[in-house]
Amino acid sequence: MSASLLRVVGMTLSIGQVTTDSTDPGPLARWWADVTGGQVVAEHDGWFYIVQGPGGAFAFQKVDAVTPGKNKVHVDFATTDDLDAVADELVAAGASLVAKRGDDAFRWITLTDPQGNEFCVASEHLTED
């Protein structure tokens, strides 16, 4: 089964986009477009933005107040580049480092975007069958 499809009880669902709440979604959408190599493809009266990138779509919607506490959902990105160098570039672009995690077998780095939303970047590993 494709990683982007889920079949439950005769119904097929696919991931349309990952949406993040924000009190100021425009700058956040542009930041994510910049760091993913995507572009803002839709903007709806300043309250809803869609970013289309190489890995799929992200949306950013305006809310009066974000839900306090740790993200309940976050995005994991994979890279074939040097993991530490990628994290350094993201920090230079405005992200904040939360923690470097894992061990020699699998490492990932948790960061936050400029508005405090957590996301992770991990080394993409090829698996052998």
From TrEMBL:
Residues 14-124 form the VOC domain. The keyword Oxidoreductase applies. Pfam families: Glyoxalase_6. The keyword Oxidoreductase applies. Keywords: Dioxygenase, Oxidoreductase. It comes from the Bacteria. GO terms for molecular function: dioxygenase activity. InterPro entries: Glyas_Bleomycin-R_OHBP_Dase, Glyoxalase_6, VOC_core. PANTHER family: CONSERVED PROTEIN (PTHR35908:SF1), HYPOTHETICAL FUSION PROTEIN (PTHR35908). This is Glyoxalase/bleomycin resistance protein/dioxygenase.
